[in-house]
Input
Amino acid sequence: MSDLPRLALSVRQPSAWAIIAGHKPIENRTLGSIRAGRMGPGRIALHAAAGLKEEEFRYLYWRLGKHGVQCPHPLELPRGCIIGSVEVTGIITESRSEWFGGQAGLTLKDPMPCDPIPCPGALGYFEWAPGGTLATPAKWMLNWGAPSSGAGTDDMFPDAPIAFAKPPQKPWG
Output
């Protein structure tokens, strides 16, 4: 995609993937971060943030599953790069959408994926430029979904989705 917008917004995985895949039509933010980041309508590049903690991934994996979205393995989600573009159509402070869950949100449409382009991210809307490398996987990512040692399950159900006995705790706010 040679016509990527020069302004980008950094979003943590797997939310960035869900936006580009067309599953997540709202990106939740605080009103303060929207104002400070000079966010508004228009087409933007979508940056997959480099950082990701296991607790965040676990919660978002579960949350996406509640919406019927099967999240990829964390090793399949590029980080520290532009992954496409999306049209921001507006800013909302209330919605009946299951995807709305904060003080405010950016409404999104027409996602267009691209091959990952490594670049550093920043807060708010930022001018991006290619550079750097993709984020390397953390140790927890290598073991995600593997049976825990001593569980006695080994590979009995290798294709079964990851299940949660109870919902994971929301790791922020």
